[in-house]
Amino acid sequence: MKKIINKTLITGGLFCLLGIISCTKELDQQPITAKSLANFLTTETEVEEYVNAVYGTLQLNGLYGLYLPAIGEIPSDNTFDEVPANDGGMYGQLDQFTTVASNGMLSDLWKNSYQGIQRANTVLNRIDGISYASAAIKQARKGEMHFVRALLYFNMVRVFGDVPLVTNETTNPNAFFGQGRTSKNLVYAQIISDLTNAIQELPASTTTPGKAVKTAAQSLMGKVYLTLGKFAESKAVLTDVVASAKHTLLAEPADIFALNNKNNNEIIFAVQFASGINGNSEGSSAYQQFSPSGTISGAKGHNLPTKSFYQLYSASDKRKTAYVGITSAGTPFSTKLKAAATTPADGGSNFVVLRYADVLLMLAEDENELGNAETAKTYLNLVRRRAGLADATQQGQVDVRDAITLERRLELIGEGHRWFDLLRTGTAISVMNAWFASQNLTTRITDRDLLQPIPQDQIDTDPAIKQNP
């Protein structure tokens, strides 16, 4: 049964009923129940329903509902797990670098990612043959699916390294088994291809919150190129985001994540959540799970900012209170996530995947690595000034690089970037071992700790998939 379930999930349920994607956590609540894909996705209305289901995948716990933000932060020096034994130790293993292949967090990340990928594959495979009243809308949907597929593969390759590359729809549950893992270089080539298509296909703007637009694809492409060390290419596409004038820094950091100001001009792409609807089933539990133990009902103390991180903020930095709070016991916590006190598991905060401050700091990094330290500081200082800080005074590539690195931590705390920043800059081992030593902890990491283990249930299902070291 385990093997059957895993094959069903990894192929996106192409040969099962669509009830698993029916009526929760989608942009537009249109139930899809008791419909087989063999007789589905033949009209524009049905494609629109299924596109919403693709977006709905992003809201699952294995992705931006809970686990992916934690995977992007907890292994780093930004956050920690307050009670490592909670939830079977899933988060604590990340914190202590003891993660095992049976970790349920990684299993859900893998399965939910391939659910989303295969759903996007299905739309892309069929949409050209389906009549649409508007050619522009049809093109936009193709761009959205290329964007989501690229985003999911980008997450997967950064977490696991080589992963199976699946781009075609299939009704054969065994079609993608036995091929093993695809080289990450080929996966990145597919990501770039998908984003190239998305940039051409997506509209400049949308009236539907949560839909991907052109600047989202450009911003993600810039991050992909930055990850690959292609600074000139990253600079070019991120400069286009700035030139579009579609986004701006909000005047006050506290306004970015306010519940009454969601999807503001600083937000480029966010996974949508809403509280108080559908029996409190459309909200995020991240606020509850990522709150210090004992502070609210059901709080688990996962993914809390470390005290050493909190101390990096200067007294005049607006983000010290706008982004991070601190309990009476002195435990820091993120204030970017919010929920009503009466229903803490039904949080209304969207999860921000891409925003303009990140774009500016990536551009600063690109310019600095290309030898343009002074130009880099112009982008860096835009973010610093918004935080109420004086312009950076560092000189030279090395010192400016350190300033940008620090600013990324202070600005993007809790948004799932820090661990991936350490990986892409090749500093994860040195930074983390120095941090462990500074905290009088005995933990030390090596190259073996830079990738997460492939979920054991996937290896059990497909022996061609080999484990990471």
Radius of gyration: 21 Å
User: Kindly, what is the distance between the CA atoms of the first and last residues, rounded to a whole number of angstroms?
Assistant: 28 Å
Rounded mean pLDDT is 90
From the spread of the alpha carbons, the general shape counts as globular
The succession of helices and strands, N to C, reads HHHHEHHHHHHHEHEHHEEEHHHHHH
Describe the model.
- The chain has 20 helices and 6 strands.
- With 469 residues, it is mainly alpha-helical.
- It has a two-stranded antiparallel sheet with strand order 1-3.
- Strand 4 (324-326) and strand 5 (332-334) form a beta hairpin.
- Helix 7 (135-160) packs parallel to helix 9 and helix 15 (356-369) packs antiparallel against helix 17 (397-412).
- The protein is globular, with a radius of gyration of 21 Å.
- The model is unreliable at 1-34 (pLDDT under 50).
